[in-house]
UniProtKB/TrEMBL annotation:
<dbReference type="InterPro" id="IPR028939">
    <property type="entry name" value="P5C_Rdtase_cat_N"/>
</dbReference>
<dbReference type="InterPro" id="IPR000304">
    <property type="entry name" value="Pyrroline-COOH_reductase"/>
</dbReference>
<keyword id="KW-0641">Proline biosynthesis</keyword>
<keyword id="KW-0521">NADP</keyword>
<dbReference type="InterPro" id="IPR029036">
    <property type="entry name" value="P5CR_dimer"/>
</dbReference>
<dbReference type="InterPro" id="IPR036291">
    <property type="entry name" value="NAD(P)-bd_dom_sf"/>
</dbReference>
<dbReference type="Pfam" id="PF03807">
    <property type="entry name" value="F420_oxidored"/>
</dbReference>
<feature type="domain" description="Pyrroline-5-carboxylate reductase dimerisation">
    <location>
        <begin position="174"/>
        <end position="278"/>
    </location>
</feature>
<feature type="domain" description="Pyrroline-5-carboxylate reductase catalytic N-terminal">
    <location>
        <begin position="13"/>
        <end position="111"/>
    </location>
</feature>
<protein>
    <recommendedName>
        <fullName>Pyrroline-5-carboxylate reductase</fullName>
        <ecNumber>1.5.1.2</ecNumber>
    </recommendedName>
</protein>
<comment type="similarity">
    <text>Belongs to the pyrroline-5-carboxylate reductase family.</text>
</comment>
<keyword id="KW-0963">Cytoplasm</keyword>
<comment type="function">
    <text>Catalyzes the reduction of 1-pyrroline-5-carboxylate (PCA) to L-proline.</text>
</comment>
<dbReference type="Pfam" id="PF14748">
    <property type="entry name" value="P5CR_dimer"/>
</dbReference>
<keyword id="KW-0028">Amino-acid biosynthesis</keyword>
<comment type="pathway">
    <text>Amino-acid biosynthesis; L-proline biosynthesis; L-proline from L-glutamate 5-semialdehyde: step 1/1.</text>
</comment>
<dbReference type="InterPro" id="IPR008927">
    <property type="entry name" value="6-PGluconate_DH-like_C_sf"/>
</dbReference>
């Protein structure tokens, strides 16, 4: 990793939790040569088949035996918490006594606050609370990060390098993490949902599934690229497409009649609220 030149021992990253988010980040880190496979270990609770698959695909270290897992966790410079919120409390309670103060915790867990992580560990570990998304696997992720005050400048740079290698990074106050989850953490799912609907309509209208897919994908890709390349507001780009009394206007009127803006905003806010609820549930159950 680029910022590891100032560390004395080689950087090692242990992913505690080996599901889809952990894989998305690992895939990106390896593809962009931010870390070599031998610097990365991945652990889960019990699914050996999944671990074998990850070793085959990426060449990373995986382990199922408890003492090997412990060794990987205690020797890592960075431990990434990548299990579901419901599993995080018990995992952190077990992890706390194994750790040294200088080991950095990077959490990708929705809703789980820095205070709760430190309380469950039993000491004020340096923590980077992050919210990535699955597009990290192709280097197009959008990650929000909030750092605890215990995090050193070197650790901050390491985390920034990790996530900048797999997309864009926004450093934000921790209080904004829930709304960021509503916008970008879960955001890809809303876009896929919209794309599913567009494809279904195209097929209903007689396009082949392949044509409907290609046209929808290219439309979404082109629209995102237009925003990036022109720097224009989406409202202006939308206006450029919408001829007075034309077909686009007719379509947008249907969306407006279905309360499109209010529905999307309500979905983003409900996502934020649900993240908070999941974090609170971990706290209540285990503190
Ligand atoms: N999937 C997504 O788009 C995003 C997910 N996240 C967060 O990432 C976390 C993981 O989500 P996914 O990867 O989707 O879940 P997943 O269900 O695909 O993976 C969870 C992994 O954690 C492992 N695990 C469970 N308990 C464990 C324990 N005690 N010790 C070690 N490993 C354990 C499971 O075996 C599994 O490998 C969640 O907390 C979620 O909030 C954050 C951003 C985006
Ligand atoms: O659905 C979830 O809980 C996670 C958090 C962000 C994306 N997926």
């Amino acid at each position: 990793m680029t910022t590891s030149s100032t560390t004395h021992s080689p950087l090692s990253i242990c992913f505690n939790g080996a599901g889809s988010m952990a894989e998305a980040i690992v895939k990106g880190l390896i593809a962009r040569e931010v870390a070599r496979p031998e610097q990365i270990s991945m652990l889960n609770r019990s699914n050996q088949e999944r671990l074998n698959e990850l070793t085959e695909k990426y060449g990373v270290i995986t382990a199922n035996l408890e003492d090997v897992k412990r060794e990987l966790l205690t020797s890592a410079s960075i431990i990434v918490l990548a299990m579901k919120p419901k599993d995080a409390g018990a995992a952190l309670k077990e992890l706390g006594p194994l750790l040294q103060e200088k080991q950095l915790i990077v959490s990708v867990i929705a809703g789980l606050s820095i205070d709760t992580i430190q309380a469950l560990l039993g000491f004020k570990a340096p923590v980077a609370r992050t919210m990535p998304n699955t597009s990290s696997s192709i280097g197009l992720g959008a990650t929000g990060i909030a750092f605890s005050k215990e995090t050193t400048a070197e650790q901050t740079n390491q985390v920034l390098s990790m996530f900048e290698a797999v997309g864009t990074v926004s450093v934000i106050p921790e209080a904004r993490m829930e709304i960021l989850t509503g916008v970008s953490g879960s955001g890809p799912a809303y876009i896929y949902y919209m794309m599913e609907a567009m494809m279904a309509a195209g097929i209903e209208g007689g396009l082949t599934p392949e044509q409907a897919r290609e046209l929808t994908v290219q439309t979404v890709r082109g629209a995102a690229s237009m925003m990036i390349e022109t720097g224009e507001d989406p409202a202006k780009l939308r206006a450029d497409i919408t001829s007075p009394n034309g077909s686009t206007q007719a379509a947008l009127e249907v969306l407006a009649a279905g309360n499109f803006t209010a529905t999307v905003k309500a979905a983003v806010h409900r996502c934020a609220e649900r993240s908070q609820e999941m974090g609170e549930a971990v706290k209540k159950a285990l503190l």
